[in-house]
Write a structure and sequence with these properties.
Elements lengths: L41 E17 L5 E6 L11 E5 L6 E4 L13 E4 L5 E5 L2 E5 L5 E6 L6 E6 L5 E5 L9 E5 L10 E2 L9 E5 L2 E7 L4 E7 L2 E4 L21 E3 L2 E5 L5 H6 L29 E5 L5 E4 L14 E3 L4 E5 L6 E5 L6 E6 L9 E3 L4 E8 L2 E8 L5 E6 L10 E3 L4 E5 L1 E9 L1
Antiparallel strand pairs: 1-2, 1-31, 2-3, 3-4, 5-6, 6-7, 7-8, 9-10, 10-11, 11-12, 13-14, 14-15, 15-16, 17-18, 18-19, 19-20, 21-22, 22-23, 23-24, 25-26, 26-27, 27-28, 29-30, 30-31
Length: 440
């Protein structure tokens, strides 16, 4: 049985309910408690800061940090940044200077290390930052490529991976100690990889799972090395297939859950140039709403972590599906939630009886981002982009009923992260807009 992030000690991280994206390395996106959104009114605080807001994490109970970059696809040089935010007023309590990113334009990540510092990766740079937003250490990574994904392993070491699409060579994993010194030569994967990384620690060791171009790779973390395991590397697509690449997976209930069709036109445009995402003139392909460059319907995959056996379901009718964020499995409900961002629609998939069947579906919603789950109350929180404004939606995981829906005054949606607060609230990040929604 796969351990639950929300009820486990997250080794390597500062003791907090949400010290890293998705609430833990298994990317289960689940938190304790409930919103009880059906019985309450949603109150929105929305801030238009014109930045690429990526994620918020908690260090201590009243210490929330917002990290991101700048959407500088053209014009002024991009840079990374970190802000310490007052969790109710959203006042900025502290902010780093501009952090170099190698001129790459990509979202990056932040995490609260067990040593008390905030670790931030952006482009091909990593920074260690104090709780007062002072830069303690800056490290230029060995690979000049935008990095996607940041995990702290149980021994306190830090791993990050560069992002590459099909035909762009092999991705690498760089491992650093808590002082941001590179521990060993970056490990070259057998193929490129687009998505972020997930990891699981079991009695057999600590393993990193990485969707590649054709296969899913399982990497064992050794004390002084990383190695590709030979016992598990299932295929999910073929080279030049008529389906897109996978983003990161969700490790849950003995399986790895992922969706295909992630390298949509906007992503292909960003990674067609170097530094990644920098143009003299912004191309028209930067919108995620463009038609997909394949005909395959949106799929949800389940890969058994022991046998390499897998199955998939295509819950949506439209061809040319596409997404910019991964699914979430909720074993307590026997439901895995997936969606199609390009065509619209979200579905709860019944995972009981070792099969995948549609339990409920809402065609009117258009989700794009990383959700949050409250398993105890069976509530899912996710966005829906409608009429040129993003919304936050709470859905009953058992029935698919919409319990709450509120507009955010956010003109752009993307695949960024939601974070559960400690006062019946959710923090929302997107390009140009940062928001807090509380249910009272």
């Amino acid at each position: 049985m796969t351990a639950q992030d929300r009820s486990s000690i997250l080794e390597g991280y500062y003791k907090s309910h949400w010290p890293v994206e998705c609430g833990g390395n298994r990317r289960q996106k689940a938190t304790e408690g409930s919103l009880n959104a059906r019985e309450k009114k949603a109150v929105v605080q929305s801030i238009r800061n014109e930045r690429w807001n990526v994620m918020t994490i908690y260090r201590d109970n009243n210490e929330i940090f917002l990290g991101g970059t700048m959407p500088s696809f053209t014009g002024p040089e991009p840079f990374g940044w970190l802000q310490k935010i007052e969790p109710e007023s959203l006042e900025i309590l502290g902010e780093t200077p501009k952090l170099p990113c190698g001129d790459h334009v990509w979202c990056g990540a932040i995490a609260a290390h067990q040593n008390g510092n905030i670790i931030k990766v952006n482009g091909n740079y990593m920074h260690s930052i104090s709780k007062e937003c002072e830069v303690i250490k800056e490290s230029k990574l060995p690979i000049d490529q935008a990095h996607n994904g940041l995990l702290i392993l149980s021994d306190g070491t830090i791993v990050t991976k560069d992002l590459r699409l099909e035909g762009q060579g092999c991705s690498t994993i760089t491992r650093l100690d808590q002082n941001l010194d590179v521990l060993h030569e970056p490990m070259q994967l057998p193929e490129g990889s687009m998505g972020r990384i997930a990891s699981d620690k079991t009695e057999d060791g600590e393993f990193i799972f990485i969707p590649g171009i054709e296969k899913i790779w399982k990497i064992k973390a050794l004390p002084n090395d990383l190695e590709v395991t030979s016992d598990w590397s299932p295929n999910y697509r073929k080279s030049n297939d008529d389906q897109g690449l996978s983003w990161d997976g969700c490790i849950s209930d003995g399986s790895l859950w992922l969706m295909n069709n992630g390298d949509i036109d906007s992503l292909r445009a960003i990674y067609s140039t170097h530094p990644n995402g920098r143009f003299k003139t912004a191309p028209k392909e930067l919108s995620w709403r463009r038609p997909a460059p394949w005909s395959c319907k949106q799929r949800l995959y389940r890969f058994d972590l022991m046998s390499e056996q897998f199955e998939y379901i295509e819950p949506f009718e439209h061809y040319g599906g596409g997404i910019i964020a991964p699914p979430v499995n909720i074993p307590e409900c026997n439901i895995c939630v997936c969606w199609d961002s390009i065509n619209g629609g979200i579905a709860g998939i019944d995972t009981s009886n070792n099969s995948l069947k549609i339990s409920w579906k809402i065609d009117s919603l258009r989700p794009t981002m990383q959700p949050v789950v409250f398993p105890e109350s069976k509530e899912l929180v996710i966005n829906s982009f409608e009429n040129n404004d993003d919304h936050l939606v709470v859905i009953d995981l058992s029935s698919g009923e919409i319990l709450s829906k509120v507009a955010l005054n956010s003109p752009l949606a993307n695949g960024m992260f939601l974070t559960p607060g400690l006062k019946n609230d959710i923090f929302y990040c997107s390009t140009r807009t940062f928001a807090r929604v509380s249910w009272k």
